[in-house]
Structure formats: structure tokens, C-alpha cells
């Protein structure tokens, strides 16, 4: 069953106001006040800024095993899964930031090289225009005095 903002918070059972900061579980689709879900404002903002709010999984789903995808870490206690989940979210945020930085650097490098290539093409276009004019002058059949000295030696 998909929950909406008009559904009550599953933890406190209070109505969720449209102005409340809420978070939705990616597995069970339940909506929680961030305080009720023990999500700090910093983590909530990081998730929102990283555009990965849809990856959050509630404690109930984490401890019930819904969050696991067939991979069980040796020696992991059920109580450790919440910490593991929070650490994985932090890791995702850090990876997103690193990827964004890499994209910015690559884009800047690409823009610089593209600019250099555009300048080269423009200079080559100017040179082609000059050579085309010179060829047209030579083809016009001007009298021997107007031709370059190299052509007059025959």
C-alpha cells in the first residue's frame, strides 16, 4: 500500500503536515517525520542535495532483512545494520560529490580543448580562404606581368 502525505507517521501516529520534513522508506513506502525516523537534519539535507532520498530504508525494513539483497556480512549483528545503512548513505553522498567534481573537471578540460580546436579551425579557414583567392587569381589568365615570377620562367 502506497502511503501519502495525508497518512499518519508510522512511528508517532500523528498526521503528517505538508510542511513537515518527512522521509519515505524505499522498501515499505511508509512515510515518517525525520525526527521519528532518527534521521538528523544534516543527513536529511545531504540526502536531498545528493538527490538520493529515494534510497533511504526505515529501521523496521533494515532489521527485518528487507534492506538486504542476499548479501550477509559475516559477524554483522542486526543492530549494526542501521549503522551500516547510514554509512552506506554517507558513502553514496561522498561518491556523488566525487563524481560531480570529476564531471566538472572533465567538462572544463573538454571546453578548453574544444575552444582550442575552434581557434585552429578558424585559422585554417582563413588560410583556406587566402589560398582559394590566390588560386583564383592564378586561374584568371592574367598577363605575364601580373603572374608570380615562378610562373614566368616557362
Automatic annotation (TrEMBL):
<keyword id="KW-0479">Metal-binding</keyword>
<dbReference type="InterPro" id="IPR019786">
    <property type="entry name" value="Zinc_finger_PHD-type_CS"/>
</dbReference>
<dbReference type="InterPro" id="IPR011011">
    <property type="entry name" value="Znf_FYVE_PHD"/>
</dbReference>
<dbReference type="InterPro" id="IPR019787">
    <property type="entry name" value="Znf_PHD-finger"/>
</dbReference>
<dbReference type="GO" id="GO:0008270">
    <property type="term" value="F:zinc ion binding"/>
</dbReference>
<keyword id="KW-0862">Zinc</keyword>
<feature type="domain" description="PHD-type">
    <location>
        <begin position="6"/>
        <end position="64"/>
    </location>
</feature>
<protein>
    <recommendedName>
        <fullName>PHD-type domain-containing protein</fullName>
    </recommendedName>
</protein>
<dbReference type="Pfam" id="PF00628">
    <property type="entry name" value="PHD"/>
</dbReference>
<dbReference type="InterPro" id="IPR013083">
    <property type="entry name" value="Znf_RING/FYVE/PHD"/>
</dbReference>
<dbReference type="InterPro" id="IPR001965">
    <property type="entry name" value="Znf_PHD"/>
</dbReference>
<keyword id="KW-0863">Zinc-finger</keyword>
Amino acid at each position: 500500500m502506497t502511503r501519502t502525505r495525508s497518512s499518519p507517521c508510522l512511528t508517532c501516529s500523528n498526521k503528517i503536515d505538508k510542511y513537515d520534513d518527512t522521509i519515505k522508506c524505499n522498501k515499505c513506502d511508509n512515510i515518517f517525520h525525520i525526527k521519528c525516523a532518527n534521521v538528523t537534519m544534516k543527513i536529511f539535507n545531504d540526502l536531498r542535495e545528493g538527490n538520493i532520498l529515494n534510497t533511504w530504508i526505515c529501521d523496521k525494513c533494515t532489521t527485518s532483512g528487507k534492506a538486504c539483497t542476499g548479501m550477509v556480512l559475516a559477524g554483522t549483528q542486526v543492530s549494526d545494520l542501521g549503522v551500516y545503512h547510514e554509512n552506506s548513505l554517507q558513502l553514496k553522498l561522498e561518491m556523488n560529490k566525487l563524481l560531480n567534481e570529476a564531471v566538472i573537471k572533465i567538462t572544463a578540460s573538454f571546453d578548453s580543448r574544444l575552444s582550442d580546436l575552434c581557434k585552429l579551425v578558424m585559422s585554417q579557414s582563413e588560410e583556406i580562404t587566402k589560398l582559394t583567392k590566390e588560386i583564383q587569381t592564378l586561374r584568371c589568365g592574367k598577363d605575364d606581368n601580373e603572374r608570380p615570377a615562378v610562373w614566368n620562367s616557362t
